Amino acid sequence: MALPAPLRGVIPPVCTPLDPHGEVDTASLARLVTHLLDGGVHGLFALGSTSEVAYLTDAQRATALETVVKTADGRVPVLAGVIDTTTPRVLDHAAAAAALGADALVATAPFYTRTHPREIAAHFRRLRAEAGLPVFAYDIPMAVHGKLPLSLVHELAEDGTLAGLKDSSGDEGALRRLLVGLGGRTARGRGPAPAFSVLTGSELTVDAALLAGADGVVPGLGNVDPAGYVRLYEAARAGDWAGAAAEQERLVGLFSMTGIGPEDEMGRSSAALGSFKAALWLLGVIGHQATAFPQIPLGEEAVSDVGRRLTAAGLPPVRRARTGDAR
């Protein structure tokens, strides 16, 4: 479908349900996409960090993206992550994503080796030129050695290389400076890059980002409660900042599930992704809680805790925690 310019709203990074053998559970993924669409989301981001893209083989990436595109059936845009270490590898993923029907691409700067801003600019320009689809930059310093310079983002926005930015830097000051440089909340859309979309990746400060002029949010927690983020977004768009803040506070409480996994037993990614999948399993959306190897699954006690937090947030589970389902 035609991509709105700028893209706005709630665009969750879609989890990739796995079966006990570590393969993509396409039936569960289709149910998850339906769950997100029923929640009113404005787009879908397949093959992002919350999708466990770094753990998936090329064949698994293709299976997951094809399932998301087919289930969405043109109702909302589908953004495909083409995240990899070097430009040639990213271009290969981009060609596959285009063939499978993605509406836009999401890419980081090259990583593993350190790159100069000129090299990063060349990377994004070649991707835009050769892929033939709109490109969103994914600013995630923890994965690529550094933050995208604001001057580079402005340059690539103004010359049309980038259609937007997903900011997962955690640097709220830099996000605010970017938005001010693009015209600020009252003038967004009339500045030097009117079609450029700024999306926050921080689930916990969405109301503040929207107040500053962000166009939307890419919330991992949106897999669990898409309707909550849509309510937050719609309240902000209507100027109901008190209502937006109240919804944000409820979601902050729900997000606490990501810290349930014991820090001395598992990585923070395992804990966060495990909590999202446990929540989706408890809600009856997906068939298994499995996370990609070698991530460590949540234990029964932690899954029960996820269930309690779902209930407290007004999302009562339909299943009870049990052992033996996490893998």
From TrEMBL:
Q: Which GO terms describe its biological process?
A: small molecule metabolic process
Q: Which residues bind pyruvate?
A: T50, V218
State a single Gene Ontology molecular function.
Answer: 4-hydroxy-tetrahydrodipicolinate synthase activity
Q: Where is the active site?
A: Y138 (proton donor/acceptor), K166 (schiff-base intermediate with substrate)
Name the domain of life.
Bacteria
Q: Which UniProt keywords apply?
A: Lyase, Schiff base
Pfam family of this protein, just one? DHDPS
What InterPro entries does this protein's entry cite? Aldolase_TIM, DapA-like, Schiff_base-form_aldolases_AS
Q: Which Gene3D superfamilies match?
A: Aldolase class I (3.20.20.70)
User: Which family does the record claim for this protein?
Assistant: Belongs to the DapA family.
Name the UniProt record assigns to this protein = Glucose dehydrogenase
Organism field: Streptomyces chattanoogensis
